[in-house]
Design brief:
Layout: E1 4-8, H1 13-24, E2 28-33, H2 36-48, E3 53-57, H3 63-76, E4 80-85, H4 101-122, E5 126-135, H5 148-167, E6 174-178, E7 183-184, H6 186-193, H7 197-200, E8 208-209, H8 210-220, E9 227-228, H9 232-243, H10 246-256
Length: about 260
């Protein structure tokens, strides 16, 4: 039976490049995205390049929409071999600059709740040997000014992935969480455009091509490791956090990252 990969947020950026990499490894692909036109174009490009691909318009924060996809997969493939929980958003804004609680919750709902809900809905289709890959961020390892809600959501993904990994050990389902640095994606370019003036002095930061990040992430998803680090800047941040006392670490990070 053919191997199936399901990728949320797979119509552009890192998700699309991960879909390509998995297609090259022989997986048939199902990508989920909210925007119909982008989804159509992504599926067409994947199909034109010879990959077996389908797309479903789906908001990962809506259980009913995810269950429609679940039923379709259950009718045809019966199982998911690789579940990539990549869909996410980033809002660059001080906590005090939010005007309402709907906007305040947005990053949490899409990034964290969407990841948890997707994992919950699709989990019955995973079996021994299946893999789950979640996408967090370097800001899941620390909190930067202007990214308070985003950082909280991405830190939540890391801890959720760690807990789920232990829950699924007995089923021999592998769980990984990637913390990429900045990548040249449509999302990053939009993030940069929306940065307030006090953040611009530290931008643009060094960026990795999404294609290269996807290649490194998929290559590292093996064995029992949980955390996938693909860039030197995030690796340096991780070492800083692990090695230095909290007070000294904060002094260094306060100087490295802009504050209003």
């Amino acid at each position: 039976m053919e191997k199936l990969a399901v990728i949320t947020g797979g119509s552009s950026g890192l998700g699309f490049e991960i879909a390509k990499k998995l297609g090259q490894k022989g997986y048939s692909l199902i990508i989920l995205a909210r925007e119909k036109k982008k989804l159509y174009n992504a599926v067409k490009e994947l199909s034109d390049e010879g990959y077996k691909a389908k797309g479903y318009q789906c908001d990962i924060t809506e259980e009913a929409q995810l269950k429609v996809v679940f039923k379709e997969i259950n009718k045809t493939n019966k199982k998911i071999d690789y579940l990539v929980l990549n869909a996410g958003v980033v809002t660059v804004k001080l906590l005090s600059d939010y005007n309402n609680t709907i906007d305040l919750k947005y990053d949490l709902e899409v990034n964290l709740w969407g990841t948890i809900l997707s994992a919950y809905v699709f989990l019955p289709l995973l079996c021994e040997g299946s893999k789950i890959l979640m996408i967090s961020s370097g800001f899941g390892l620390m909190g930067a000014a202007g990214y308070s809600i985003y950082a909280a959501s991405k830190a939540g993904i890391i801890n959720f992935a760690e807990a789920l990994r232990r829950e699924l050990l007995y089923k021999k389902i592998s769980v990984y969480v990637a913390c990429p640095g900045d990548m040249d994606t449509p999302q990053f370019r939009e993030e940069h455009r929306n940065m307030p003036a006090w953040m611009q002095k530290n931008a643009p930061r060094g960026m990795m091509e999404a294609k290269l990040a996807a290649e490194k992430i998929i290559k590292k998803c093996r064995g029992n490791k949980l955390l996938i680090i693909t860039s030197f800047d995030v690796l340096s941040l991780l070492m800083l956090i692990k090695v230095l006392p909290r007070r000294l670490r904060d002094i260094i990070l306060d100087k490295m990252f802009p504050t209003p």
